[in-house]
Amino acid sequence: MILDSHPQNLEKAVRAVQRGQLVAMPTETVYGLAANALSDEAVVKIFEVKGRPRFNPLIVHVPSLQDILSFAELPSCYEHFAKAFWPGPVTLVLKRRKEASLSLLVTAGLETVAVRIPHHPEALNLLKAVGLPLAAPSANKSGKVSPTTSTHVRDAFTEQEVAYVLEGGACEIGVESTILDLSLKEPTLLRPGGLSVEEMEAFLGKKIKQPQMFSHINAPGQLESHYAPSLPVRLNALNLQEGEMLLGFGSVETDFNLSKSGNLREAAANLFKMLRQLDEVKNIKRIAVSPIPEEGLGRAINDRLRRAAAPREGLSG
Ligand code: AMP
Ligand code: MG
């Protein structure tokens, strides 16, 4: 059931989470599948309903910095950074406190924990009302495109699997959060996403370490398939081959243009929605994608597209 923002509906969602059920919540990045992060029984349902082949660690969502300090250590030199970008589309990987009562499944047995304070008012309302940290990966079946509307979520899961979907409109950002690891010697980018590396570097006044993977635009074979539409995907397409439909960017003619004006923010918000729409188009064999600049949000868009184009093995996400 999709619940609109009414206090009684919020109460329903809160009780469901407290009973150990899954509730989908809107965030500014994508819709998340939320479970009580203190409960192994609740968290295991996430892996079960997503059909995730592996227990990879999940992002823990809380409504305030104060809530994080009970289970993670935020180095004091990054407090100003956290305050500047939270609530917002960045996830920080921090040292997990020994006494943390988080489910071990949430952190997949690691000594670190990934945390985020989302910006979306419905997510913040739920987090504050439920009074528990919520583990929440994207609310899609493993390997499929992340959901950016409530109907994407409702269509993917039964009501036995996901008790409620909180309505929050179309996600403003539309790609997952940036993941920055602060548990290492140097701040390290683990996933490009909704907050650009350039913005973080400008704030920190230094370079963020980036694993090679993100700069090799032509090495999709090395990447795990993830965020995949059903149709195959061809990147950096300058022209159309037989049986292809174009997912465009900039001034190209197509029914599916991420942003005619070449605006990366608009493109990110349209990405998953258009991949889904293209999947529905009859009689096409492949999705061809225009080149997208590797800067700002373009890094996150290209990262998702490279995964969508990668061979379909070992799906996760
Ligand atoms: P998703 O489940 O789609 O929201 O993606 C969560 C991402 O966060 C995955 O790429 C995880 O590998 C990453 N992640 C979560 N916790 C940690 C952690 N403790 N250390 C490193 N990466 C993490
Ligand atoms: Mg995911």
Question: What report would you give on this structure?
Answer:
The chain has 317 residues and is an alpha/beta fold. The chain is built from 9 helices and 15 strands. Strands 1, 2, 3, 4, 5, 6, 7, 8, 9, 10 and 11 form an 11-stranded mixed beta sheet that branches. Strand 10 and strand 11 form a beta hairpin. Helix 8 runs parallel beside helix 9 (297-309). It starts with a strand and ends in an 8-residue tail after the last helix. The model is unreliable at 215-223 (pLDDT under 50). Bound molecules: adenosine monophosphate and magnesium ion. Magnesium ion is lined by residues 137-138, 146, 317.
Helix content: 25-40%
pLDDT average, as an integer? 91
What is the SS-derived class? alpha/beta
Bound molecule types: adenosine monophosphate, magnesium ion
